Amino acid sequence: MELHFIIEPFSVLWWTGIIGSICISVGLIQLAIRIPPDKRRLIMISIGLLQIGCEIWRQWYLTELGIWSFKNSLPLHLCRITSILTGIMMIRSHQLGFEFLALIGIPSAIHSLLTPELINGGDMFQIIEYYISHGGIILITFYLAVVEGYRLRENSWKTVFMFSQILLLVIVALNYVLNSNYMFLCQKPLAKNPLIIGEWPWYILGFEIAGIIHILLFYMGFRKLKPLPF
Q1: Does 229 reside within a domain?
Q2: What's the whole-number mean pLDDT along residues 199-203?
Q3: Calpha distance 90→81 (Å, rounded)
């Protein structure tokens, strides 16, 4: 049964998701920088639990719908992995975790929001969860940078790139065992993303080239962030 659901770019639903994600993210960060540090901790834990809770809810919801499977429902797509990491980071942050989010998480979340593809169906509950979890990746990464003062270490892009390649190898092995398509490494996504060029395996080479370019661009961007004024 085909469950993939594409949100067409520039549709009303697409604009609603994009604008809503931006407004909520900006609002929460503006709130956080204006309240005492002890109150910020409550916001961090709440957002972190929401991110983790979304994934737990998704697993339960797919089970209730009777469509949960090892092949399609595990949180093994890149944005699902980084979404869970953002939840953990808001409860117990770590420098390497921030660097992974800044250089891998944000680019993947941006592309997922620009060309949304829901692999388990497109009812309203799953659409809302999709935007919370993917928008949360961008929100939390910038929260850690703007509110908590996290910055990238020199040459951190090399470490992140190395970890991303190890992660890819792990997912390739799991795809082989599960006969799945996590991270779209066995079959290209249906969403019309301009970075998807050619058929398998050539589009994966495009992913790799685009990935290193994104890592370097976001590395240079985050390295330019100034010290916090508060």
Answers
A1: no
A2: 83
A3: 15
6-58 pLDDT per residue, tens: 999 999 999 999 999 999 999 999 999 988 888 889 999 999 999 999 999 99
**Residue 75 counted as domain residue:** yes
Determine if the pTM surpasses 0.90.
yes
**Which domain does 81 fall in, by range?**
5-223
Tokens describing residue 71: 């092949």
Task: Judge contact between 67 and 82, C-beta under 8 A.
Answer: no
Q: Give the C-alpha distances (Å, rounded to integers) separating 39 from 33, 47, 59, 97, 137.
A: 10, 13, 31, 23, 21
Q: How far apart are CA 167 and CA 111, in angstroms?
A: 19
On whether residue 11 sits in a domain, the answer given is yes
Q: How many domains does the chain have?
A: 1
For residue 230, is it within any domain? no
Task: Report CA dihedral (221, 24, 31, 106) to the nearest 10 degrees.
Answer: -20
120: pLDDT strictly greater than 50: yes
In the numeric block, the tokens 């992660």 are attached to 167
- pLDDT at position 2 is 53
